[in-house]
Amino acid sequence: MIGFYNFRTPGLIIRDPELIKTVMLTKFNNFNKNTSSLDPHLDPLLTNDPFFTSGLKWKTNRAILMNALSGSRLKLIAIQLQTVCEKFSSYIEEQTSMSDGDFSVNIQQLMSRFTAELVAIAAFGIDGKSFTNESETFALTVKSMFPPVGVGEIIGINTIFLPFLAKILRIRFMPKNVDNYFRQIINCVLQHREDTGEIAQDFLQKVVDLCKNENDNKVNKNAVTSHAASFFLNGYETSSLTLSFVTYRIATDPIVQTKLRKEIMDNFEKYEGKLTYEFIQEMKYMDQVIKESMRLTPTIPYLAKICTKEFKLVGSDGLECTVYPGTEIIISTIGLHRDPTFWENPDVFDPERFSDDKRRNYHKFIYLPFGSGPKSCVGMRIAIMQMKAALATLLKNYSIEVDEKTKEPVGIHRLSGFTATPSNEIWLRIKSIK
C-alpha cells in the first residue's frame, strides 16, 4: 500500500490481489463509487452510464443495460454483426484489389470503422456507412469525441477526474455536435418505427421497451438516447483500441497467426461459412490471444475507486490502513498485468498463459482488463464478441505484417489517461492469401 494526495484528497495505491478483491468484491459496498464523474448539465447523455454513476442510479441503469445485453440479445446482435463483417470484408477486398493484393493501413482507423458500424446498426438502428468514403458517416461524426492524444487526454482527465474544473471551463466529455447527432438519430428512428409499426428485435428496441412509462406507455426518448450513448461508449473507442493492439501482436508473431487462422478456418468449415454466435463462442485460442494482448496493453490502464464507508484494509504483509470516506483507491491495471511476481516473463506475448491448464493457477484479481465485481464492464461480452468477429473476418483471407511505417516497439502512450492509446501509430500491411 502506498499513500498519496490528489491535490487535497487522500489516496491509496494497492497491488495486493487480496486487497483488490476486498475493494472490488467482498467489501464492494464500502468502495462502491468510481472517482470518475460528469456534470449532468454539460454531459446529460452520459451521466446515466453505469461507469459514471453510483447508488440507486447506478443500479437502475446497469440493470437496464444488462437486460438489453443478455445472452439472448447478444445472439440477435451477432446477426447484425454478420452484416458489419460483410461490409468489413468488402472494404478490405476493395482496398487490396486496388493495390495488387496488399495494402498498408493505420489499423486503429480501420478498426474504428468496424466498431462504429456495429454501434450504428445495433444501438442506433441505422446504416452508419462507416466503410464508405461519404463525407458524413457515423464513424467520422463520432470521431470528434476522441481528439488526438495529448489534447484528448487533457480533456478527458479534466472532465472525468476534475469535474469541478470542467464545470468552470465548460469542458464537455461528449462534444455538443455528437450529443445533437445522437438525439437526432434516435428521434428519427423511433418516429419511423412508430409510423410504420415496426418492432425490431434489436438492442435499441429492448431499451425502448424498458424505458416506457408504466402509466401512459410513452417512451422516454432522453433515456433511450442515453443508453444508446452508453452502448457507444462501451463498444466504440475501447474496442477499436483493443483490436488495434491485438492485430499488432498477431502481426508480430507468425506462429500465433498461423495457429489462429487454422482455428478460424476450422470453424468456418464447421459452420458452413457463416459467422454465427456459436462460431464466435467456440474460438478458444482466439480468446487466449485477445486476453494476452489485453494483459500487455489493458485498454483501461488503472481503476480508481472512492471509499464510501470507513474500513480497515489489512495487507498480506500485515500492514494495516484505516481508510475513511472520500479516500481514493487506485489499482494499476497495467502494473498488475506486468508484475513479475505474478507473471513469468511478463513482457513476452504468450497466449498459452491463458490455456485451460495454466489460467487456473492465476489469482483472479491479478488480471483486470474489464474490472471485476459488481462494477465490472457491462459491455464486456459484446466487446469480446465483436473483436473475435473482426479478427475472424480479417484473418480468413488475409495475412497481416507490421508495416515499415510503424515505429517499434509499440507500447502505451505516456500521455494516456482514461484509455490506453498506442505510443506510435500502428501501420499494418494486409495481404490477400486467397
UniProtKB/TrEMBL annotation:
Cellular localization per UniProt: Endoplasmic reticulum membrane; Microsome membrane
Stored CDD domains: CYP6-like
GO molecular function ontology, one term from the record: heme binding
Keyword list, A-Z: Endoplasmic reticulum, Heme, Iron, Membrane, Metal-binding, Microsome, Monooxygenase, Oxidoreductase
Superkingdom: Eukaryota
InterPro entries from the UniProt entry: Cyt_P450, Cyt_P450_CS, Cyt_P450_E_grp-I, Cyt_P450_sf, Insect_CytP450_Detox
Membrane topology (UniProt): Peripheral membrane protein
GO cellular component: endoplasmic reticulum membrane
Amino acids binding heme: 377
Pfam families cross-referenced by the UniProt entry: p450
Gene3D superfamilies: Cytochrome P450
Cofactor: heme
Functional description taken from the UniProt entry: May be involved in the metabolism of insect hormones and in the breakdown of synthetic insecticides.
Family membership: Belongs to the cytochrome P450 family.
Protein name per the record: Cytochrome P450
Organism field: Microctonus hyperodae (Parasitoid wasp)
